[in-house]
Specification:
The complex is a heterodimer of chains A (412) and B (209). With 412 residues, chain A is an alpha+beta fold. Chain A is built from 13 helices and 17 strands. The model of chain A has no long low-confidence stretch (mean pLDDT 86). Chain B is α/β, with parallel strands linked by helices and 209 residues long. In chain B, the strands form 2 sheets. Chain B has a 6-stranded mixed β-sheet with strand order 2-3-1-4-11-5. In chain B, helix 4 links the parallel strand 7 and strand 8. The model of chain B has no long low-confidence stretch (mean pLDDT 90). Classes of the chains: A alpha+beta (412), B alpha/beta (209). At the A-B interface, strand 7 of A face strand 5 and helix 7 of B. Chain B: Its EC number is 2.4.2.17.
């Protein structure tokens, strides 16, 4: 092989793919049981669409392709934005539920490498309500439970609350970015002097200074923020979070919930409740989501919605770390070896077994002795033998084999 | 209490950390500064202490190999690790600075060449200033670069300024103050909050004394 053809991300495509399939099937199944239907959208999108939407995906990070007529396309850098655009031209009924398993493409930092990541997520189109928001969070938790995780937390915050607070301060874009960075990393040591250098009213300054501490058990966080005497509209947003939490109590999921009012999502389209799920030993959130009621307006329509997405590569890392990955399945249930004179009977029987759902490989006379299986069938010139778990049985008709297999499976 | 792992930069930070821990009543019995052991436990085995190379501390914490880390801010900034940078431990205080030969002009029209162990910080600082530069990444003895013409100036941490003085260099511009930080893995902060939060609180109080 020519050395420059080696791509490190191909290292273990075979086993990894099998394990990813198991994972994807679990996710699909759970999404379906909550009434979601799978959709797919094209991999190529118009660059103009992303360039015209304010500050959502950095245009430098997008993978661009020129088509001969001069139009610029991008490889899908995000899923939520194009799905919302599809919904604009699609008469929505309330309660439209879709899920997707799709790849997204972005340039990775300065490394000039295209980063391809698989996202598995859901979008729930419909008016904001505490019951909907709680159910979406419950689904995210339910899927994590399906995968076998025990130690994980879902952090719940509110993008609107934070934006409303910040807008009161009247900061420049540069100042806002600085402030967000300090809050996101809970960097109190630098947040304080930076806040003091800004011209903000003292009570507001005090509140912003304490945002990183608005973290922990929902009751404690709510009590802590009430002290600052919020404005009416913010009070309503806070009440929404409390309502969602009360419903999560009914789902009996409160053990997994933490409030983090300093939570800021880099995707600017979130407008209300936001959440992200952390699994022990994995420093990045494996699932992120929230409500984005304003995004549709960028396409000239009102499409309230909430959604979340799993990063499958991160999930696999978490599964591996917690030893929860599915063990690779053996390739075959039964191997058939036959003498050339018995080819017709052997192949007819193989077909019969496959129709019954068994995974069967067939070879002329032990030609391929590398493949092994607990169960083999041998067609010699004068006899047919089934060898299953060390015991051998003579048979004439394939239905006898079937009966034997069913019987022995019952014993196990 | 749930146990957690603390990664500390080897060398001076390690000694200062052990001292700080002692002050807040956390004792690492077998620790001696000359020991070559890399793993220690405190007396009630609730903290596992790892000694790792300073530049690797943010990586350990970001990837969850350690829940908590103690390391200089220079390494946190350079790694751009996605972690909580939660507490300034007020030890190891020094400054990030641009240094060069006396009278070196940093505002020349054509791009200047900077030698540094910290290419990311250097890049970020100059791009914020809107100034084009060339970066030469070195791993030590950075002060040598301007003397032999490898670079026009250096970006490095300056503590006393003695190394600069002895090599005939001066601070041309201060970038930002540096000190030792407590950093925390974001998942650990959520999941092990019952053991990590009290630890942070103890340290915070210890620092105020």
């Amino acid at each position: 092989m020519q050395p420059f053809l080696i791509n490190s991300s191909y290292s273990n495509v075979i086993d990894d793919f099998q394990q990813q399939e198991v994972l994807i099937n679990k996710l699909k199944h759970r999404f379906k049981t909550y009434g979601y239907r799978q959709i797919k959208i094209p991999a190529f999108e118009y660059y103009d669409m992303y360039a015209s939407i304010n500050g959502i995906v950095n245009t430098d990070d997008m993978v661009k392709v020129m088509v001969p007529k001069g139009k610029v396309l991008v490889l899908r850098p995000d899923v939520t934005i194009p799905i919302t655009q599809v919904m604009v031209n699609h008469p929505t009924t309330q309660n439209d539920r879709y899920f997707y398993i799709m790849d997204i493409f972005r340039y990775h930092d300065q490394a000039n490498q295209v980063n391809e990541r698989t996202q598995a997520g859901i979008e729930h189109f419909g008016k904001k309500s505490a019951t909907t928001d709680a159910e979406v969070i419950a689904l995210a938790i339910h899927t994590l439970q399906d995968m076998g995780f025990i130690d994980f937390k879902m952090e719940i915050g509110h993008a609107g609350l934070f934006k409303a607070l910040i807008s009161l301060a009247g900061l420049s874009k540069q100042e806002l970015i600085h402030l967000q960075n300090f809050i996101q990393s809970k960097n109190i040591a630098e947040l304080e002097p930076y806040l003091n250098s800004l011209e903000i009213d003292d009570p507001l300054k005090e509140l912003i200074r304490n945002i990183p501490f608005l973290y922990g058990l929902p009751g404690d966080v709510i009590n802590a923020i009430q002290k600052y005497g919020l404005q009416e509209n913010m009070q309503a947003e806070l009440q929404h979070l409390i309502d969602v939490y009360d419903i999560l109590k009914a789902y009996q999921l409160t053990d997994y919930i933490i409030f983090n009012l300093g939570l800021i999502n880099d995707m600017d389209y979130y407008s209300d409740i936001i959440f992200q799920g952390f699994i022990e030993f994995i420093g990045e959130p494996v699932v992120m989501g929230g409500r984005y009621d304003q995004l549709g307006k960028q396409f000239g329509a009102s499409i309230p919605a909430i959604g979340f997405a799993y990063d499958l590569q991160l999930l696999e890392r978490a599964l591996q770390r917690h030893e929860l990955l599915a063990t690779p399945t053996t390739i075959s249930d039964i191997i058939v070896y036959y003498h050339p004179s018995m080819q017709k009977k052997a192949l007819t029987d193989t077909l019969h077994l496959r129709k019954c759902g068994y995974v069967v490989l067939s070879f002329p006379d032990q030609e391929n002795s590398l493949t092994t299986s607990a169960c083999t069938i041998h067609y010699q010139k004068d006899s047919c033998t089934l060898i299953n778990k060390g015991n051998s049985y003579q048979f004439h008709d394939i239905t006898e084999v079937q009966e034997l297999l069913v019987m022995q499976e019952g014993e196990v | 209490m749930e146990a957690f792992t603390l990664a500390v930069a080897k060398g001076r930070t390690a000694n200062q950390t052990i001292h700080l821990m002692k002050k807040i009543g956390i004792i690492f019995n077998n620790f001696t500064s000359s020991s070559r052991k890399l793993v220690f436990y405190n007396s009630d085995k609730t903290i596992r202490l790892l000694f790792v190379k300073a530049v690797d501390v943010p990586t350990y914490v970001e990837r969850g190999a350690a829940d908590v880390g103690i390391v200089g801010k220079d390494n946190v900034l350079e790694s751009e690790a996605d972690v909580y940078d939660i507490l300034d431990l007020r030890i190891g205080q020094c400054t990030f600075a641009i240094a060069g030969k006396p009278g070196e002009n940093l505002n020349k029209e054509k791009p200047i060449t900077i030698a540094t162990k910290y290419p990311t910080i250097t890049h970020n600082y100059f791009s914020k200033k809107g100034k084009a530069i060339h970066i030469v990444k070195l791993n030590g003895s950075v002060e040598l670069a301007p003397l032999i013409g490898l670079a026009d100036a250096i970006v490095d941490i300056v503590e006393t300024g003695n190394t600069l003085k002895e090599n005939g260099l001066v601070v041309l511009e201060e970038v930002e103050p540096i000190s030792t930080r407590l950093i925390i893995n974001k998942a650990s902060f959520a999941i092990k909050s019952t053991s990590i939060q009290p630890f942070i609180e103890k340290l915070r109080l210890g620092l105020e004394e």
